[in-house]
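Margin note from the TA: students keep mixing up input and output lines. Inputs are the sequences; the output is the structure of the whole complex. Example:
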Amino acid sequence: MKPAPFAYKKARSLDEAVALLGEHKDARLLAGGQSLIATLNMRLSAPSLLIDINGLSGLDGITAKEGMVEIGALVRHVQAERSEIIAKLVPLIARAMPHIGHAAIRNRGTLGGSIAFADPAAELPACLMALDGEVEATGPKGKRTIKAQDFFKGLFETALGPQELLTAIRIPAATKDTRVGFAELARRHGDYAIVGLAASAQGDGKGLKDVRLSFFGTGDTPSRARKAETALESGDIDAAVAALDLEPHDDVQAPAKVKKHLAGVLLRRVAKQLMEART
Amino acid sequence: MSDLGIDISLTVNGEQVSERVEPRQTLVDFLRDNLGLTGSHVGCEHGVCGACTVRVDGAIVRGCLMLAVQCAGSQVETIEGLSDSGEVADLQAAFEQRNALQCGFCTPGMIATAQDLLAGGGVPSRDEIREHISGNYCRCTGYHAIVDAVEAVALQRAGAAK
């Protein structure tokens, strides 16, 4: 299908983008467009105006400072995939990257766009949750920071206000004790997950602490499985699988029962990754 | 044309093009309908099938997930350009020799995607080839011959480079 008609404006500054969002209540921001244009083509969305933010400067950097890694909203997946800072300091995202779409999609799609779109089956929102990251939002009153756990509100719904843009994400940099794990099941490599799991933990002697299991494709938002986290901290993978506190819904990909089973399969794989010492 | 039209200038296969387009027109529709470059195919129109793969400023993209207005000032290359320049001549020959297609609808996208992989240099493993073309899988399951063809060209180019 073809999109319904809309107007197009290339924003020249962040202030202009914010102002345009204020003037046009049903406008949508165009970043990488790899989800948005698909929804426009399918007429699932029909905004009157697209505000193209691709030309905005200062939003495409990856920087490490004061124990945090900041990723600008317009950093494209391919840039993150090739970044030494990401490989070294945000290894979970480095692991997730090959699962996100395909090369042609990763050449355009942005990290900020993926997180702001908040698809429940997408990898990056779950990574942000697993890493206890945060989002920088810019609006008429300036900038504010929103923790990942407060950001994902529901199906494709975030804490961003109607006149706010996601301008950066920030993630605590990995230390020598940081362990990460990632696994996903999809019908075809690069497709949205049937179920996926992004996880982080801190190595503690031979064990693990601060385990964060963030499942995706299992609910309206990325879902932490806290009972399973506690079980894993005591080193018992079987108990963690038995304790798996997830209530997936049926969807087009699989029934809830299958998803729950697959979540257990992924948990075993990811637990093994977490327990392997970092090299 | 509605009053939403926007004038754009871009380079397509080395030639300067100036057209007035509606913002809602995707790049692949622009290439096919306005410029008659029908080698890029329109399949799923939501980024899944890869039949519309083209190169924008050197990087492969989905022609259905970019708008023509976004390409103002860009260098766009389609399968016609890649073919005419001879850049993919060896891939085309290998696909033909191995009958690496069934209906052929995916072939322009497959060639553009394979060229993207091989342009990185080296000889990718069969797994890497499969992963790279995974965004171009369609329905026919005729992929063994495609992987064979891409692998053969990778080996051939690596041999020629020595």
